[in-house]
Specification:
With about 130 residues, the chain is an alpha/beta fold. Helices cover about 25% and strands about 40% of the residues. The protein has a single domain, classed as 2,3-Dihydroxybiphenyl 1,2-Dioxygenase, domain 1, CATH 3.10.180. The strands form two sheets. A four-stranded mixed sheet has the order 1-4-3-2.
Length: about 130
């Protein structure tokens, strides 16, 4: 069993594709019409395993919208991405206009920060402890 695909519910697929590729630096893998206004859009990290993708799912389900809004209002990140240097990534994203709800903070052996993806989600970035 492998993790090959994970989803992030987004309120606007075009806005999400732009943010996840132009700001976060992910690469578009798929952009396939699936009927109506919805598309099957996936992105992947050039720094990650090449066959692991993130689907930018349209959040058209009222239950999912309620869940997404509740997480956001409570300040809970939907997902987390690992980075080599949280401080450096924080500065890079901040310079691109990304809004952080938590600046880089030590939490035990890791350092983390939380930002808005502009599509209804909070995303955590974290720097794992140095191998030793």
């Amino acid at each position: 069993m492998k993790i090959k695909l994970n989803s992030v519910m987004v309120d606007d697929q075009d806005k999400a594709l732009k943010f996840y590729t132009e700001v976060l630096g992910f690469a578009k893998c798929r952009d396939i019409p699936v009927g109506g206004v919805f598309r099957w859009i996936t992105v992947s990290s050039p720094e990650g395993h090449p066959d692991v993708e993130l689907a930018l799912e349209p959040n058209a389900n009222p239950a999912a919208q309620t869940f997404q809004k509740a997480l956001f209002e409570q300040g809970i990140p939907l997902t987390a991405f690992e980075v080599d240097d949280v401080q450096q990534e924080f500065k890079r994203l901040k310079a691109l206009g990304v809004v952080f709800t938590m600046e880089p903070t030590k939490a035990g052996p890791i350092t983390l920060a939380v930002f808005s993806d502009t599509c209804g989600n909070l995303i955590q970035i974290y720097q794992p402890p140095a191998a030793g």
